[in-house]
Amino acid sequence: MSVVIENVGKTFIDSKKNKVMALKNINFTIEEEEFVVLVGPSGCGKSTLLNIVGGLLSPTSGSVYFEGIEENPNLGIVFQEIALFPWRTVFENVVYGLQEKGASKKEQQEIGNHYIDMVGLSDFKNAYPKQLSGGMKQRAGIARALAVEPDLLLMDEPFSALDAQTRTLMQEELLTIWNRTRLSTLYVTHNIEEAVYLADRVIVLSRHPGQIKQIINIDLPKTGRNDEKYRLQSSKYADEIWQLIRHDAEEALKE
Amino acid sequence: MEKQKQVITNRVAFLDKKVPFYTSFLGIAGILILWEIISRIGIVSPLFLPAPSNIIITGWEMLVSGEIYGNLTASLYRIVLGYAIGATFGILIGLILGFFKVADAIGTPIVYAIYPIPKIALLPLFILWLGIGELSKVTIIALGVFFPVVINTFSGVKSVDPMLIKAAVTFGSNRINVIRKVILPGSLPMIFAGLKLAAGTSLLLLVSAEMIAAQEGIGSMVLHYGNLMITSKLMVGVLILSMLGLIFNRGLRWLEYKLIPWKE
After folding, report:
1. Chain B residue set in contact with A, beta carbons under 8 Å
2. CA angle A84-A44-A209, nearest 5°?
């Protein structure tokens, strides 16, 4: 199974009735068990692209399709805004997708508990989102996306609202979880270190219009990229990406 | 030479200042005692301001004689029925206006056009249409409840976070489940705000309607004793209304707490 993003373009009409091209000519494929990270300066259309892949926005041109799959593909999205249902407990949030698919109570219990355990929220199963810290909320958000056992996992800057320390821990945790589930993943971030730390492949986007500037394969082992021996290589990748983005980021600052 | 020392103190300490829990009891008790004294020593004639003890004794007598019971049941019947009808239709129509764009385009301007009319001004019209019996009074209360509830429900539906709708759709919800599982619970807090607002309105309309056109009821009782200048009995009526409002409000808050446990 692979996910093909083919010639995708998106044009918005802004408040002054001008046409704004947010995305142009986007082509890439997410392979089975591949972790792809989209990185780019603000306003490069990376979230727009993720929303198109997630079926929450229609592209102006081109299309997104799954190859080598029989049924309707299952998607799991982890939102930047987290978007947990405040009136549902952690457990009820996590099994939401299962309920909608008509899973039995027993299945819901089993799968729900499994993923709540995986993200380390067992003690907070019956808590409402309001009672959780930011990091715990996003863990619940991740468990909700994993619980539908998606064919493609989409993550839209999931940790950007967290403080730096929580964020580092969550990145490590995400990798551990990913190694257990090995889901095809599309991850959006503006954080270059995060991209290098998580990705098999980094897709660098430029802005005005959002286009693929370069695709960089990260040839590092999937775990332990924080280790001393990979530090140098990691920072080389980060530097390479920063050089690609820098000019655009400076331009973005002037707006 | 000794060094001068300037200690920095918390200058916003007054923000955290706590008042002991019994302060409000003491305050109210103090006012009642003062009131009692003023009436007892005759600074103010009991015709204008009967003593609290006098009001309580009168209230007990009216309770025993069954006068309160008769008037209270008449009033409760009107307000409960009117409130229930108004709230039910308010929530229903509010949801419809919120969900369906066509209904919104047609219905919302009508709602906002009728909303500012002081509902009591319509009582003569309703008496003309529906007669002077219970129906016209219940209708005016229902109408007064309907508007704050419909407008709050409508804005509640509109204020549901679109991210939550996106999340629900992503995880497989169809449109009906989006309404049932996201929009409805999401607008509950606003619906309750409307219900609480309407509680005050319904009480106001009840009393006004009873003063204009009723033989029985707390409102007509208050007016009746006002005309006869029996102030202590009038005060008993006012006291009952105050308690009615308090119970109403507390009841709604309890219900809100039960239905929306995730808010607190």
Report:
1. 161, 163-164, 166-173, 177, 181-182, 185-186, 188, 260-263
2. 140
